[in-house]
Fold:
Amino acid sequence: MFQLIVRNWGLKLLSLTFALLLWLFVMGEQKAEVGYTVPLELKNLPVGLVVANEVPSLVDVRISGPRTLLSNIQSSALSMSVDLQGLQAGLTTFKRLDQNLNIPSALRVSRLSPSYVEVKLERIRQKNVPVRVSFNGQLANGATLGSVIVRPESVMIEGAESEVKDVDSVETEAIDITLAQESFTLTLPIEYRGTYTELKDQKTVEVEVLILNSTPPDITSPEVGDEIMPQESTHNN
Structure:
């Protein structure tokens, strides 16, 4: 029995030494930690609902484990998601964001920032609101602003219920009427940028502006060289 133990003892000692060094190497590697910035995706948004709060699109992740495994991680291949399937309107908190992070089992997530996200879902609503025309500048002397006709007079907005409720009107791009003397018609974009709402279809309107001019037209005297046609005179017989 003793002979079996001591047989090839040099080779056995070398193997034991190699195994010990490998164990020490692996144990030393487990102390490595690397930081990544991982995109966060919202999946399966229920029909008829809209996200109505700011949700971070990126999560800072610290991953620890053997250096050899960490060096094989491609940051572009890392992603995280939040599944919204089956949710109702309201506020939902999602923790354990790292559960669907695709990393080897020998690695672990040591830190997340943020460590959780809150998602507020609201019902999608639509509303017709009037279009207001915005002006800049002053008309020419003697000119006054008459009627302003907008076609169409109202447009539809769509989005989060709470925001739709607070919108009373939308405005066009400002019209510069500085020194304007004549009526005109323009096609203008609607300047509306809601946080969780948007214009549904109509993005532009036609605006007809009537300018009233109270200044009498200039009567110019003929200049030298102008041909003056005589007026016909009528005689009663």
Q: What stands out?
A: The CA atoms of residues 50 and 217 lie 59 Å apart. Residues 219-237 have pLDDT under 50 and may be disordered. Residues 29-115 form a domain with the RNA Polymerase Alpha Subunit; Chain A, domain 2 fold (CATH 2.170.120.30). The first strand starts at residue 33 and ends at 43.
